Write the structure tokens for this entry.
Amino acid sequence: MPTPPTASALYSQILDVVGGVEPRIAEAIRSELTDQRESLKLIASENYASLPVLMAMGTWMSDKYAEGTVGHRFYAGCQNVDTVEAVAAEHARELFGAEYAYVQPHSGIDANLVAYWSILHKRIESPTLDRLGAKTVNDLSESDWEDLRHEFNAQKVMGMSLDAGGHLTHGFRHNISGKMFQQHSYGTHADTGLIDYDALRASAKEFKPLIIVAGYSAYPRRVNFALMREIADEVGATLFVDMAHFAGLVAGKVFTGEENPIPYAHIVASTTHKSLRGPRGGFVLATKEYAESVDKGCPMVLGGPLSHVMAAKALAFAEARTADFQTYAAQVATNAKALAEGLLKRGVNLVSDGTDNHLVLLDVSSFGLTGRQAESALLDSGVVTNRNSVPRDPNGAWYTSGVRIGTPALTSRGFTESDFDVVADLITEVLKNTTPTSTPKGPSKAKYVIADGVADRVKNRAGELLDANPLYPGLEL
Ligand code: PLP
């Protein structure tokens, strides 16, 4: 997306105004741009939103309360928020071919909570109210209400385990989803690193979940949603897909057929800011039968919508409907393959031996490193990644044995396959030249040394790639 010619002057003035109130904030905003420009951003969940998307968030739309839904608000004067929300939802529906879109969730976690609640409402609350002849929970007697509360608490969810690549919100003990539901997780095959659908089917039959969650944060492969739906139907579960990570690949028509969750899921939740490249936020897509339940997101788990962010979501969805976005999405996957091949040929171990989405998961244990050491050594060399567990990780979720690397952000900057081969080379150089510090108890899990000159050499080569693919070209700040 070209930078408008007036953007430099505009942002300069904005930062002067912000700095007039608190100079440290203006300085931090400037400095963040420099940091983003000068590092190889390989965090799989990050991206660079377009300037129009960023601009839409910095407006007075932020100042309006609008609890409720379009045309049905608990505050007066919401006509402009109605326009914003309706346009954003229309673009989301058209982009994904969904029957219903709810664009209020403030983040991915909020979107997932809306999804969970809508399933509980549809599957548990509504039938109970019908059975008892009640219109709302206010019409229930104290003892019926207590029974219903217990009923909510007895429900079961089945999602991918954290170390196989699932997300905290898929039933992990330290997240409310793990406390709200009885939980059972599915994992990946020990040899192939792929989802073991046969094992998943067998444990779903035994566990009988109300909800099966498909989706991931760190699984480097595509999911067969047709098969997931078949399993859900067999056990009477609702299929909830969390496409937070790969929404951009769905929007950009890289994931089609059985890899596109929309025709198969009852309900889909997502973020807008990862591969989809929008503002920080969430949204939910649903079939018509779940639409009414999804609308109960506010007041059930959300307060007033962030109207300025919904405006930016509308722009991001509109951008994602263009041919340019499809080119970007295809390149994200092509680049991930090039990165995986570049790493494999240099002797780096990858979970599942490769990728067919936007991320690769390195197992750095063959270098004698923990994920934490690898993450830090890469950061010292100007390469920003994040450590991540690998399946059955002996180092747990804090030190880990893995590093997760994604291609969306650098693809947005214009990186192609040959650039990612160089990125693979830089990563390998850092890993090969980093050693854990020895302690009296053995090698440290956190401390390390990088061989002399390596970090600077990598930074310089990374700098050449970054200069050739500038972030917000023409924006002089
Ligand atoms: N779902 C998945 C699969 C994610 O990877 C994430 C974030 O990392 C989320 C949900 C939560 O998104 P947010 O950080 O916007 O709440």
Summary: The longest helix spans residues 108-132. The two ends are 18 Å apart (CA to CA). The pocket of pyridoxal-5'-phosphate is lined by residues 45, 107-109, 112, 167, 169, 215, 217, 242, 244-245, 271, 282 (CB under 6 Å).
